[in-house]
Amino acid sequence: MAFSLSSSSSTLFFTLTLFSLLLLSHHQQQQFPPLNSAEQESVYLALESINPEIQWRTLYPDDLCLSAPHGVICDYLPNPNSNDTVFTPHIVELNFGYVLDSSDNPPCSSNSSFPLSLSSFSHLRKLFFYRCFTGSPVLIPSLKTVSSELEELVFMENPALFGSLSGIFGNFTSLRRFILTGSNVSGGVPDEITKLPSLEQLTISGNRNLGMGMIPNDLGCLEKLRVLDLSRNGLTGTIPNSLGNLKFLLKLDLSCNNFVGKIPEDLKNLQNLEFLDLGFNKFGNFGIPLFLGNMPRLREVYLSGNPLGGAIPEIWKNLRGILGIGLSGVGLVGNIPSSMGVFLTNVSYIGLDNNKLEGTIPKELGLLEHVNEMNLQNNQLSGGIPFSAPFVARIGGKLKLEGNSGICLDKSMKWSVDQVKGSLRNLRICSPTTENPNAALFVDGNGNGGVSLSRNWYLVFVLGVFWSIYLVGG
């Protein structure tokens, strides 16, 4: 039997529903009061600091927790001083500056100044500035009055920001993420950063005047750290052994600094590490660290630009998950071990260029199915290249072999002349008498071999026999 409401029942149902919605709306209005005037005024002052050219009060005249620019975010938090379940609105995020076209954070102007009204935000969790300080110099202020609940503090690409990091941090026991990139800040990495017990990401990168400082010895106390990026700062000294205590670390990037000495063996304790970049420092004359072979979770390893010296070690058996390996310009000598082609089955990038490697290229490298860039240029390699035509066609111009005077095209690989691409066309053809006694003398456009060396010797032998008979008979 179909069920239907009578006219009177429908009216009663509609009345009850409307009454419930009105009660709910009234309850919400009682439960969620408007943003308090002090925080509202502080938001206006902050917006006017980063862009005084916009009439913020006119654009957003109402409660900023109900209508605010994209980067200003509220949360309704319980009032600890009330016995009832009362929620009070507070500003929890301030994000300034465009990041993506889809992000309409309040835009900064060329004459932005740092907001001085941050102490009013008692529950601020995130403070973010992207390309806000690009014109007149802006001194990075002390943030000791900012809420101790702050979890993220981010300064990205603010070249006019200057001063020292020392003394700016408050009682940030909840800070999980600190990022400072592309600034003019100086004075090195301050020791007080080691007093941030909740820190999970520390990225201080690309700050051109931060150099002449060292990594604090106690940085290894940040046991929750997962990302440590101190690249491109010109830092000096040695890497402290304490970094080996960062057992949850996933990424370590110390590239493009002036670190010296030996790469610390204690880094072998970073058993969760997936990304390691120590490239372009001054670590010298100790060879490639053998302990890398005992870090099976590594996915990318870059040591390029350090005068490490030595041969390529046999450490690849436990590194089958490697995706990228950079050993360019590190002074390597000896042969390329075939084990790299056997075990690095997932690798997509291999950089061994600008070394002193010699011998032939292992044929096993030509079996790597996922590699899309291989740079072997500027070494002392010799012999025919062992790569098939499909392998070369797949990699294209990212197979780099220039600067190895002894390398040649091995026609025994049954290559078609039309399949030889890019810089490989400049390689000479291998000499069959010296480099490959079984090599074909030519390969036609269909990949068919022509006269081979073995057949040539057979003809010479037959002619020699006839010549001998002629001479004897004469």
UniProtKB/TrEMBL annotation:
InterPro entries: Leu-rich_rpt, LRR_dom_sf, PGIP
The protein's name in its UniProt record: Piriformospora indica-insensitive protein 2
Tagged with keyword Signal: yes
Signal peptide (residue range): 1-27
Domain of life: Eukaryota
Keywords, in A-Z order: Leucine-rich repeat, Repeat, Signal
SUPFAM superfamilies: L domain-like (SSF52058)
Presence of keyword Repeat: yes
Subcellular location: Cell envelope
Gene giving rise to this polypeptide: LOC110689928
Cross-referenced Pfam families: LRR_1 (PF00560), LRR_8 (PF13855)
